[in-house]
Amino acid sequence: MGKHLVLVGGGHAHLTALANLGCYVRRGHRATLISSFRHHYYSGMGPGMLSGLYEPRQVRFNIQRMVQERGGQFIEASVTVVDPAAQKLYLDNDAQVSYDIASFNIGSIVPTAELAATDEHIITVKPILNLYKARNLILSQSARGITRVLVAGGGPAGVEIAANAWKLLHENAATPAVTLVAGNQILRGVPARARHLAVASLAARRIAIVEGVRVHSFENRCATLTDGRIIPFDFALVAVGVKPPPLFRASGIPVGEDGGMSVNGRLQSTAHPQLFGGGDCISVEGCTVAKVGVHAVRQNPILKHNLEVALDGGEMKRFTPNPNYMLIMNMGDGKGIMWKKRLVLNGGLAFLLKNFIDRRFMKRFQVSGELKDFSMGSGEGSWSL
Predict the structure, then answer these.
(1) Got the DSSP string for 283-300?
(2) Is there a contact between 74 and 247 (Cβ–Cβ < 8 Å)?
(3) Rounded Cα gap, residues 129 and 56, in angstroms
(4) Total domain count, the chain
């Protein structure tokens, strides 16, 4: 008798399983995807969408169609509680879904509660669709001379957001003014040469970089920093780091220090073997995995295989994170900054490499016709390749 496989979230780590959903169905199993969104937006191209290099359809996967075309069921909802004992998921539409095997790829959230982000002029970078909303809001007001953008967060995401926000303003307003509040140090932990190149790139466009402080609060279109300084803005984009959603802790499922579901090397819950997960929402036992998309992409085939084994039997594979991954930042000017180990590459070639990798990834998981008019464009913003 077939089993019921439920995928929760259509993020990077689930794409291979979604693309092969028909394999589960043909073996007599039921397959369901539960997601709050019908499309999954590729975070790597989010900054490019902000600056106008890409339209939303060019950076998203139609996960609803992926599921339905392969014989699965799509439920547009969010899971609010997981009951491992009863093997049930409780949804925000008051429905309940029973499962035999469930896998979670629900991404991460930007912790903004302490920043009191309460109005449309303060925008988090997650979910990625927010960057398109930010673009439209900025354009609607830039015509009236409103050009001040503050970016909170000095990691690769914050740098790309600042660079691409400047491009958006430069092409649509006379005097762009972008400030990046970078925390202790901009691109902390990144090779020194890559950091220096990024600083020089931003400085050449007069993007102000504020280091040694963080944003403490937002109020009345002003950011108060931890040293008491106040910076006025018209729009604030918050990229201060991400953390797993509170679902697992609230459901009594063992979590790691960051709140992600604790999983073993097989991407399987350390306490409940019927539960699996990938991407930013998990915490791999015994190791630290950075919240970058490259790990979720590499978890794709392993998670797909292990879900098959959980349904039909066999030997599971293990995920071993590789710390020596490559990252490329889209600097919003047709150039990129790439690093891997000690290798650092700056300029148009780095951008072209990034463009090739991002486009190939997009095409791999598209349903038919979804990218019919997808041209090369002039850039994208993957901070995790």
Answers:
(1) EETTS---S-HHHHHHHH
(2) no
(3) 8
(4) 2
What is the H or E stretch that residue 123 is in? strand 122-124
Q: Which residues are CB-neighbours of 228 under 8 A, at least 6 positions away?
A: none
Write out the two tokens for 177.
């003014």
Question: In a 3-state reduction of DSSP, which class is residue 171?
Answer: helix
The pLDDT tens digits for 278-332 are 999 999 998 877 777 788 888 999 999 999 999 999 999 999 888 788 999 999 9
DSSP state of 255: B
CA-based torsion, 44, 49, 54, 60: positive or negative: positive
The CATH number covering residue 301 comes to 3.50.50.60
DSSP H or E stretch at residue 34: strand 30-35
Full domain range(s) for residue 130: 113-241
For 222, 355, 381, the CA distances from 362, given in Å and listed in that order, are 38, 11, 13
pLDDT digits (tens, 9 = 90+) for 184-200: 999 999 999 999 999 99
The answer to whether residues 103 and 247 belong to one domain is yes
Given a contact cutoff of 8 angstroms between Cβ atoms, the answer to whether 198 and 329 are in contact is yes
In a domain, 348, yes or no: no
pLDDT attached to residue 158: 96
| Whether residue 122 is found in the same domain as residue 269 | no
* Residue where one domain finishes, among candidates 312, 346, 364: 312
Task: With 0.70 as the threshold, say if the pTM is over it.
Answer: yes
Give the strand pairing for 336-340 and 343-347: antiparallel
**pLDDT(342) > 50:** yes
Nearest Cα residue to 165 out of 219, 193, 123: 123
Scanning 227-347, the segments in alpha helix (DSSP H) are 247-250, 293-312
The answer to whether residue 333 sits within a structural domain is: no
Domain-embedded: residue 178: yes
Q: How far is CA 314 from the centre of its chain?
A: 32
Nearest one of 236, 121, 219, 240 to 179, comparing CA atoms: 236
The set of residues, in sequence order, having a beta carbon less than 8 Å from that of 313 and lying 6+ positions away, is none
How far is residue 132's CA from residue 134's CA, in Å, rounded to a whole number? Answer: 5
Q: How far apart are CA 101 and CA 304, in angstroms?
A: 12
pLDDT, tens digit, 9 for 90 and up, residues 258-278: 999 999 999 999 999 999 999
Q: Where are the alpha helices (DSSP H) in 288-373?
A: 293-312, 348-364
